[in-house]
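From the methods appendix. Each design record in this collection lists the tokenized structure first, followed by the designed amino acid sequence. Records were kept in a plain field format so they could be parsed without special tools. The example shown here is representative of the layout used throughout.

RECORD:
FOLD TOKENS (251 positions):
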């Protein structure tokens, strides 16, 4: 079942996937080519999640950013249709912690921002394994559930490029490219429309809230907590009490 159109932008005539989407060129989850390599970008922690400085404070904010990335990567690695996870970051602490979970970490080259980092990560995957199916996944999904991610990635198999919009329906949390397609990432701010106009197909599944729930603000963190935080973020979230828990209206 597809989501109902949420606004005029849904009328743009672009195909949207439905839960009934048949599997595309990938046969089954056990087919090695049916599993995805995920590229997860992460800013240096001292700079990350700046919009959480208000509710979290500058001591906890980088530790929250790391916890979000740990929960994101751990859930991704537990997803049955994920083959491997490549994290693109220059942060030394995050590199150690995310490698310990099983991710491969590559430096943030060419140091030209988020989309350049994602393109670099995708190239790195395909240099090692030409024809890999690749997907970019934001590192700020602390409620991410492996089963929901699997449903999204299975739906994405039918399209050369596909994406999932964020909970606000403005940005993007996931962008995919099957083996014969380039990723061509256009993340940042209002990227939903940018990805639509680039020809990527919007995935419109219901019941995949954890994949759409990125956390930029205190209110986003409350919403993620409602869905159920992963263990790393849950531990940090408990510390928010002493620092002024995020409250409705806090940016
Ligand atoms: N490697 C890399 N990752 C980036 C870069 N810019 C953003 N990201 C990551 O891209 C994802 C989406 O970015 P945002 O949601 O804006 O996260 P953020 O930049 O930490 O948040 P703000 O400081 O509030 O803008 C997050 O996983 C970021 O860590 C970059 O220049 N290089
Ligand atoms: C990176 C994005 O947005 P934000 O910085 O708002 O999370 C995006 O949705 O493409």
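DESIGN:
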């Amino acid at each position: 079942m597809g989501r109902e159109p949420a606004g005029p932008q849904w009328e743009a005539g672009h195909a949207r996937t439905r839960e009934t989407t048949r599997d595309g060129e990938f046969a089954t989850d056990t087919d090695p080519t049916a599993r995805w390599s995920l590229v997860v970008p992460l800013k240096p922690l001292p700079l990350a999640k700046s919009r959480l400085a208000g509710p979290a404070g500058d001591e906890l904010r980088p530790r929250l950013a790391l916890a979000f990335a740990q929960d994101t990567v751990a859930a991704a690695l537990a997803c049955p249709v994920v083959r491997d996870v490549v994290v693109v970051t220059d942060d030394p602490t995050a590199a150690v912690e995310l490698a310990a979970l099983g991710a491969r970490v590559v430096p943030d080259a060419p140091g030209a921002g988020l989309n350049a980092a994602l393109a670099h990560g995708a190239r790195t995957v395909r240099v090692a394994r030409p024809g890999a199916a690749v997907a970019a996944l934001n590192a700020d999904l602390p409620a991410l559930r492996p089963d929901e991610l699997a449903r999204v990635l299975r739906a994405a198999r039918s399209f050369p490029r596909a994406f999932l919009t964020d909970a606000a329906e403005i940005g993007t949390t996931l962008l995919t490219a099957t083996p014969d397609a380039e990723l061509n990432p256009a993340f940042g701010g209002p990227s939903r429309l940018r990805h639509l106009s680039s020809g990527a197909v919007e995935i419109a599944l219901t019941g995949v809230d954890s994949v759409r729930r990125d956390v930029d603000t205190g209110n986003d963190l409350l919403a993620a907590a409602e869905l159920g935080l992963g263990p790393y973020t849950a531990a940090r979230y408990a510390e928010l009490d002493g620092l002024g828990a995020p409250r409705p209206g806090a940016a």
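APPENDIX NOTE: Helices lie at 53-77, 92-101, 114-128, 146-156, 191-197, 209-212, 218-227, 231-239.
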